[in-house]
Write a structure and sequence with these properties.
Helix content is about 35%, strand content about 15%. The chain has a domain of about 120 residues: Sandwich (Immunoglobulin-like), CATH 2.60.40. Helix 7 packs across helix 8 and helix 7 crosses helix 11. Strands 4-11-9-6-7 form a 5-stranded mixed β-sheet. The protein is built from 18 helices and 13 strands.
Length: about 525
């Protein structure tokens, strides 16, 4: 069990951050956006040379300071059923009990059920499969579909907005899931195939559109990366799935074509302060920047003028601020802890220090992104009402999370309150004290708390927040900067992840560990945006 009074490592980490923050932004406290969420670090960094792992094989050494049962196929087997009759003997409104009924017949075509609303989409770098066939809607029934099957957008427009329309009966609520996909896979960003990549050309977008009663159209936006490769037009796909309260219409797939705006390769735009800052909003906060936040963090870098050493330090410190920001801590980091609390850890392999197994975070990138986007939907810390919006998002998300088939399989409703709490506590690494554990068991037994609320209570326990902080920080280097899992190509295992986790644990903060510097200097990161 962790000691409630001992979180020295994390406090030291944040302490270094805050000390450096004060030097830079003492006169900028009026900024109410991301500046309130995070810290800007401005101090000379003491170089500590360490070898670079294979995971980032071109890092420059620092040489100067600075449901849900998702309904299964009927009768399994993967086929479809048709025909069949159900005979009802008698007539509606039989007047006398016990009188034999006769006549009547009802026929139904069988086949596939659509999954329930709220099921987590399962996108991949390859196109999502076409949605399961839906029965032809009856006259007047509601259908959901894209307003157009194809959309063209210029690379310099920075986002593309798609419209989903509802036709037919719109008197009740409805929802539909959406997800981007492409065929680029792990190909390098300088490979020209006419296929857009979620690592290089646009940001993965996965979510659910919810229609209120009477609402006939909804829109969502996909963020575009204006890289400096001369690559011609490139396309990716967007697919609708999991309709609720309506059926999918004919146009449930759309193709987006990004028109190139370059006449030659380079220079790499990641070296431009405003591009660099915007990309951090996209990669870590899943949104376009608010103007004041963009200006504030851009100014942190440009204030150095032509001093390259100062610029290097500021870029590291600005980058690190996004992970420590309130906005990320309350969205992305919460999601990572929820997965750990619900499902425990995963096992990975590493060759760092010799081949062996190690315990690693269980959440994967394509699980993390849609859940983080849902929790953070519309949240901009500092704007009026952001706290209540975030709280509402969390409650809605957690209520659906505990209904997922994965969760109910891992933690069935047949568990006693004690079994449920003890399983969560064990998965999370036993952060609860005896008093906290007993209180949650009692709350669940007396219905003072729901399963969702108990899950949240464990995931938000301060001891778990402290204990998981470094593991999640390293994981987010891969999710945020490289847009992949730690053991995805260009790696084959968790050797790089383990190397950086050891360094962060050893030095206590990302500045001394030189971790952020390594990732933003790596060829893999820089190659996402240009030569």
């Amino acid at each position: 069990m962790l000691n409630k009074n001992k979180s020295a490592n994390r406090k030291a980490f944040v302490g270094v951050f805050l000390l450096l923050l004060c030097i830079t932004i003492a006169t900028s406290l009026a900024n109410k956006k991301l500046a309130q969420q995070s810290a800007a670090i401005n101090s000379t960094l003491n170089a500590t040379h360490e070898r670079t792992p294979k995971a980032i094989d071109t890092v420059q050494e620092q040489t100067s300071p600075q449901f849900d049962l998702s309904r299964n196929v009927i009768a399994a087997g993967g086929g479809s059923s048709s025909g069949g009759t159900l005979k009802i003997e008698g007539t509606i409104g039989q007047p006398a009990v016990g009188t034999a009924m006769s006549s009547g017949q009802f026929s139904q075509s069988g086949g596939f059920w659509q999954p329930l609303s709220g099921a987590t989409p399962t996108p991949s770098p390859t196109p999502s499969p076409s949605p399961s066939p839906s029965p032809s809607p009856s006259p007047g029934a509601a259908t959901l579909q894209f307003s157009a099957s194809s959309t063209n957008i210029g690379e310099g427009n920075l986002k593309v907005t798609l419209t989903v329309t509802r036709t037919g009966d719109a008197t009740s609520t409805a929802s539909v899931g959406f997800a981007t996909s492409d065929l680029a896979g792990a190909q390098n960003c300088n490979v020209l195939t006419g296929i857009a990549s979620s690592r290089c050309d646009y940001e993965i977008s996965i979510g659910t559109l919810k229609f209120a009663a009477g609402e006939t159209s909804r829109t969502f936006s996909i963020l575009i990366i204006d890289d400096s490769y001369l690559e011609g037009s490139e396309t990716f796909n967007v697919t609708l799935s999991n309709p609720s309260g309506a059926s999918l219409g004919a146009t449930s797939n759309a193709t987006v074509t990004i028109g190139d705006n370059d006449i030659a390769n380079g220079p790499n735009p990641i070296d431009i302060a405003s591009f660099y800052v915007r990309q951090h909003y996209l990669d870590f906060l899943n949104r376009d920047p608010d103007i004041s936040g963009l200006n504030f963090w851009t100014d942190q870098i440009t204030s150095c003028g032509a001093d390259a050493q100062c610029v290097g330090v500021k870029r590291i410190n600005v980058s690190g601020a996004y992970y420590i920001s309130i906005e990320f801590q309350e969205t992305g980091y919460l999601v990572e802890r929820l997965y750990k609390t619900a499902y425990g850890d995963a096992n990975g392999t590493s060759t760092f220090g010799g081949s062996h197994q190690l315990v690693v975070p269980i959440v994967r990138l394509l699980e993390f992104l849609p859940d983080t986007q849902e929790v953070g939907q519309g949240v901009i810390v500092g704007q009026t009402g952001w706290e209540q919006l975030l709280e509402n998002n969390k409650r809605t998300f957690l209520a659906a999370f505990v209904q997922r088939s994965r969760f109910t399989t891992a933690l069935p409703v047949s568990l006693t309150p004690a079994q449920f709490v003890d399983t969560l506590n064990a998965n999370a690494g036993h952060p609860l004290s005896v008093v906290e554990r007993n209180s949650l068991v009692n709350d669940l037994a007396t219905s003072a708390k729901t399963r969702a609320q108990v899950l949240r209570a464990v995931a938000e326990d301060p001891d778990l927040i402290d204990a998981e902080f470094n593991r999640a920080f390293v994981l987010m280097q891969y999710f945020g900067y490289l847009r992949r899992n730690p053991n995805d190509p260009q790696d084959t295992d968790y050797s790089g992840y383990e190397f950086w986790l050891n360094k962060l644990n050893q030095f206590g903060n990302f500045v001394d560990a030189e971790m952020v510097k390594a990732f933003i200097s790596s060829v893999e990161y820089r190659a996402r945006f240009g030569p």
